[in-house]
Amino acid sequence: MSISRGCPSRAVLNLVAGRWTALIIGSMETGPRRFGEIRRQLDGITQKVLTDKLRRLERDGILKRTVVERPLEVHYELTPLGLTLIGPLAAIRAWAEEHIGEVDESRASYDGDYALA
């Protein structure tokens, strides 16, 4: 089977499979968040990376950015399209939590086998 450059699944995987994207979406599952709230939830993300990811998700229609004038605040929330990602990403998170031990064991075994070579 060949996966062409124009394949929809390839484009969507590129959208949601980034290092921070799924975590950003997960942080907004329960409702709108301010930039600082999202950043505090995502240990290790830089301000620049978060800004870039939020802009990309807004461009792709996954989230909406709203500016409130008084006091000046910016809120981010999932769009109806973004909300449809919660279920699939929750399934991946559940799989990860269930199988991380096996993944770690496999990595340790692989690393041990190749360290001896």
Brief summary of the model shown:
The protein is mainly alpha-helical and 117 residues long. Helices cover 61% and strands 12% of the residues.
Give an overview of the whole structure.
This protein is mainly alpha-helical and 117 residues long. Helix content is 61%, strand content 12%. The protein contains six helices and three strands. The protein has helices at 8-16, 21-27, 35-41, 47-59, 80-83, 86-116; strands at residues 33-34, 63-68, 73-78. It has a three-stranded antiparallel β-sheet with strand order 1-3-2.
Q: Roughly how many Å apart are the termini?
A: 34 Å
Structural class: mainly alpha
Q: How many DSSP H or I helices?
A: 6
- Please give the largest β-sheet: 3 strands, antiparallel
Write down how many β-strands occur, each being a DSSP E stretch of 2 or more residues: 3
Uncertain runs with pLDDT below 50, 5 residues or more? Answer: none
Query: Which percent bin holds the helix content?
Result: 55-70%
What is the CA-based Rg, rounded? Answer: 18 Å
Strand order across the biggest sheet? 1-3-2
List the topology elements.
Blueprint: H1 8-16, H2 21-27, E1 33-34, H3 35-41, H4 47-59, E2 63-68, E3 73-78, H5 80-83, H6 86-116
Antiparallel strand pairs: 1-3, 2-3
Attribute tags:
117 residues, mainly alpha, 6 helices, three-stranded antiparallel beta sheet, 3 strands, single chain
